[in-house]
Specification:
By secondary structure, the protein is α/β, with parallel strands linked by helices. The chain has nine helices and seven strands.
């Protein structure tokens, strides 16, 4: 009997769709944007950085993948700018088909010393922006009868660490938001999932490694194993391409029944 199951490339039919990825001018977000563009999706980049650098990224992605790539400078702390980003994508592409909420910041301090302004900023960027983008994008998804919402949470959306009160609270909130949205749109071929990575090798983390090595007077390799990856049993960083690969799966026909999930990619961290 002939096997009629589609190949993964056949199951992943996102050519011509629109993917909005927040915080996508570097790191995880840029890897996600590249993955969608390679598969034929038009992409809206978002994030901070030097204007020339961002334009080079945008142009290279558009030219190499043969898709339309736009850039939105929307500040994820500003509701009006978020609304404009989604509205502009709808005006050009007819709607946002794939929404990835990836923008995030971090700050570390004891609770009783945690600056109020840092708490407010982390909650605004890491959690409230995901609500605002989702709220704005859902009507068009409902109208078109298809949508994929992917929230980049964290292992800290499932477990806590000291000195990260705002980040842990925000990422737990992202997981809760993910579940609620998934339940509300479960019958509409719209899914909402959270990816929960452990430590990911990004320029930001590389800077943390160098700083920890300086503070503790330790070799870089020892800092990686005994400080940065202390809670991660496989003792290696999650790669940005792994996260992008999971995002593509969630956008494929094979991922249709996965919704409302907080999916760990943490090297066994939360298995303890």
């Amino acid at each position: 009997m002939m096997n009629t199951a589609p190949s993964f490339s056949e199951a992943l039919d996102i050519k011509g769709k629109c993917a909005v990825v927040t915080g996508s001018t570097s790191g995880i977000g840029l890897a996600l944007a590249r993955a969608f563009a390679r598969e034929g999706a038009n992409v809206v980049l978002n994030g901070f950085g030097e204007a020339d650098t961002i334009e080079n990224i945008r142009a290279d992605l558009a030219d190499s993948c043969g898709v339309t790539v736009r850039y939105s400078p929307a500040d994820m702390t500003r509701p009006d700018e978020i609304a404009t980003m989604i509205r502009d994508a709808e005006d050009e592409f007819g709607g946002v088909d794939i929404l990835v909420n990836n923008a995030g910041i971090q700050f570390v301090a004891p609770v009783d010393e945690f600056p109020i302004e840092k708490w407010d900023a982390i909650l605004a960027i890491n959690l409230s922006s995901a609500f605002r983008t989702t709220r704005a994008a859902l009507p068009a998804m409902k109208k078109r009868g298809w949508g994929r919402i992917i929230n980049i949470a964290s292992a800290h959306g499932l477990v806590a660490s000291p000195f990260k009160a705002a980040y842990v609270a925000a990422k737990h909130g992202v997981v809760g938001l993910t579940k609620t949205v998934a339940l509300e749109v479960a019958e509409l071929d719209i899914t909402c999932n959270a990816i929960c990575p452990g430590y990911v090798r990004t320029p930001l983390v590389d800077g943390q490694i160098d700083e920890q090595a300086r503070v503790h007077g330790l070799p870089r390799d020892q800092v990686i194993r005994d400080v940065i990856l202390a809670a991660q049993p496989n003792k290696r960083f999650t790669e940005v391409e792994e996260i992008a690969g999971l995002a593509l799966f969630l956008c494929s026909a094979f991922g249709r029944s996965m919704t409302g999930r907080a999916i760990s990619m943490d090297g066994g961290w939360t298995a303890r």
